Structures are given as C-alpha cells and as structure tokens.
Amino acid sequence: MSEQFDRLIEQAYQQYRGPAYLRSPMVSCVKAGIRLMDWVVPGATADWLGNRFFTPRRVPTRASDKEMTALASRIESLPLSNGKHAVVYRWGSTGPSVLLAHGWESRASHFGRLIKALVEKGFQVIGFDAPAHGNAAGCQSSIVEFIEIIEQLAQQDGGFDAIVAHSFGGLSVINAVKAGLRTRALVIVGAPTHFSGLVTKYAAILNLPGRQQQRLRRYIEGYFGIGEAVWQRFNAYEGLQQVDQPALVIHDSSDDIVLRVEAECLVNAWPGARLAETHGQGHNPLRRPGEGIDMVMTYLAPLLTSGNERDNPVA
C-alpha cells in the first residue's frame, strides 16, 4: 500500500510550481543561476542545494511573536544530543496539557491565536522553537531534531493530553507516534506525509534536471547516514496500519504548499485517523480565526471534562 501512496504523491508533485511567491522574477533568476552552476560545477551545485535543503529561511519577528514570548509563563532551553538547543515556551499552569509542534520556517508564536484560545478555556500549552527557527540559535535543522525535541518534552513532562502539529511538525510528530509516543488527542494539520516527496517538490520548484535531483538525493542520504533507507524511514504512512493512536487530520481546500493527496494517503493508511477539511484558510488554518481553530477547540473540549486518564483517548 505504501508504494501506491508513494506513486500517487510523486505524480502529484512532478509538475508542482508552488504558491505565487515562488514564481517571482527573483526565483526565476535563482533557477537560471542553478542551471548555470550545474553545467559548470555539478558536484558543488549538489552540495549547495543539499545544504539549502536543511537551511530554513528566518521569518522576521513580528509584534505578535514578541507578544506571545512576553506572555509565556516560562521559557527554557532544551539541549539536544547533537549539541544544539531548542527554546521551549509554556503558557498557563493548570489543566490538560497541549504540545504544539510548528512547521518548517515557522515558530511556536505562530500558534498565537490558538494558544490564547486554549489558555482561556483552561488548558496549559507547551510550544518550542526548533534549532534555526524563531528564537533558537543555529542555521540548519532536520526532522531528526524535531523528533528528538518532541520525544524529550514528552519524557520530561510525563506525556501530554493533546498534541497539535502543523506541516513539518506534523510529519515529525507522526514519526514519534510510530516510535511509541501516545496522547489522548492528536491533531495533524497540513502535514507532508511522503518524505521523498519533499525532495520532488523542492526539485520541481527549482526545475532541477534529473541528474541533479539524484545528486541531491545522495546528499540527503549521506546527511542522515542510512542511505536509501531514509526515504521509507521518515515516510509518515509507513507502518501506520499497526498504530492504535486516534487522530484528527485537517487539510485546507486552498493549501498550495501541501496537496490534499498527502492527507488522503495518511488517513487511508491510518485506521484511527479521520480527515476534516477547512476552506480558504491556506496552508496554516491555525494562524487566523475560523474553521481551523474551531475544529481543534471542539476536538480537544472533552479533555476538560473527562479527567486526567492518559489512557482514555479522544476518538
């Protein structure tokens, strides 16, 4: 079944060009520069592309980000096994605990509206900035670091009543769930599910020739040190048939970053997952008032009245 999902997603992204901002004149110049570099120094070009694959753009800090940082009741540094650090935030001090996992090139404060809604209803919220994101130092990050942060926080806090994860954070949380992480309520929003598809999408946006795509894949395999096994290792839907964790999977009809086929493959592979759709809220429907936040709040509401039994999941 996973091979069928691989093909469906790969085909969907073959002609992918991304949202409008990725079709700007500046991006066109970058594409032309890459083609020239590939012709002159193909090896160095592959190394540069591979390096960029693990290098998120720093999103400018806005007033709303500073506000959420100021509202945090605690801010901590979380050391990782590779010497890097994540920044951990806590809002609220009582009630069911909710971990928020941000996406690539995002940060904990981007959940600001959801955080305020959760705390107001009586939840306590934990969020983090992964290395090279938000207020965390560094230039690069990877799915391995995201997974380690999630697992460390779960161990440190004795688990969470709920986890809400967006995009790359969702892919990371699903991998942690497959490794044994459990929670009473799990929400996955706009998440990529096919790890190889991330490269296909990246290559399609930059219009990379086939030989350069292969060099890029070899670079990524070397980065993780497990060769071609990396593509199945981090696939979200690989091995989900045996996972007993219920989940709400949310996808927006206007998401032009992660296509609907990824959410469909995820719920088809995951017996405990169900798909819900928001409309017109883009890739992250949790950043603005509307269906996305309403769905999450409704899904988590039973946690406020059903006690603290961690083995009593929300279906």
Distance between the termini: 24 Å
- Separate helix tally: 12
- Uncertain stretches: none
Q: How many β-strand runs?
A: 8
How helix-rich are the residues, as a percent range? 40-55%
Q: Could you say which structural class the secondary elements and strand pairing correspond to? A: alpha/beta
Cross-sheet strand order for the largest sheet? 1-2-4-3-5-6-7-8
Biggest β-sheet, characterized? 8 strands, mixed
Order of helices and strands: HHHHEEEHEHEHEHHHEHEH
Radius of gyration: 19 Å
Gross geometry: globular
Mean pLDDT: 93
How much of the sequence is in beta strands?
A: 5-15%
Question: Would you give an account of this structure?
Answer:
The chain has helices at residues 2-13, 25-40, 42-53, 63-71, 112-121, 143-157, 168-178, 195-206, 210-224, 229-233, 260-269, 291-300, and strands at 74-79, 85-91, 97-101, 124-129, 162-166, 185-189, 247-252, 273-278. It is of the alpha/beta class and 315 residues long. Strand 1 and strand 2 form a beta hairpin. The radius of gyration is 19 Å and the shape is globular. The two termini are 24 Å apart. The mean pLDDT is 93. GO terms for molecular function: hydrolase activity. It comes from Enterobacter dykesii. It holds the Pfam family Abhydrolase_6.
Descriptive key words:
315 residues; alpha/beta; 12 helices; 8 strands; globular
